[in-house]
């Protein structure tokens, strides 16, 4: 069993990562972090190094997986492969009209994930 979260440098991504680290420590469960595959390679390597440092300092048991480009697909696939007990995603606040429409990636994760999904609102 694991907890799966995507790593994005957005405020939503950082909130999701912090919540996932807390959940992993509280549950004594390994954390699988999916690093987004969309950044240029030099930025990706620097981001992963900083992520490893942050996670090591947190005390959580973790591993980092390189994403293939579509974060929603990567999160659902890894949640299935690792028999995850939880997927953590970050959501941003939306306008009253925007609240009627959930982001396509978040919606796919909520519908397709094989386990509960914790949505952290920023």
UniProtKB/TrEMBL annotation:
InterPro entries to which the protein is assigned, alphabetical: Rossmann-like_a/b/a_fold, Universal_stress_UspA, UspA
A Pfam entry, by short name: Usp
Entry-linked Gene3D superfamilies: HUPs
Domain UspA: 42-121
Family label: Belongs to the universal stress protein A family.
Protein name: Universal stress protein
UniProt source species: Antribacter soli
Organism taxonomic ancestry: Bacteria, Bacillati, Actinomycetota, Actinomycetes, Micrococcales
């Amino acid at each position: 069993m694991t907890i799966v979260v995507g790593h994005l440098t957005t405020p939503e991504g950082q909130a999701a990562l912090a919540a996932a680290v807390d959940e992993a420590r509280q549950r004594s469960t390994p954390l699988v972090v999916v690093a987004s595959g969309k950044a240029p390679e030099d930025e990706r390597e620097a981001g992963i190094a900083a992520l490893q440092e942050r996670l090591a300092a947190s005390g959580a048991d973790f591993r980092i997986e390189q994403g293939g480009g579509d974060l929603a697909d990567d999160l659902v696939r890894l949640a299935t492969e690792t028999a995850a007990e939880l997927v953590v995603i970050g959501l941003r606040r939306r306008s009253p009209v925007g609240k009627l429409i959930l982001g396509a990636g978040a919606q796919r994760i909520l519908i397709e994930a094989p386990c509960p999904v914790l949505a952290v609102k920023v």
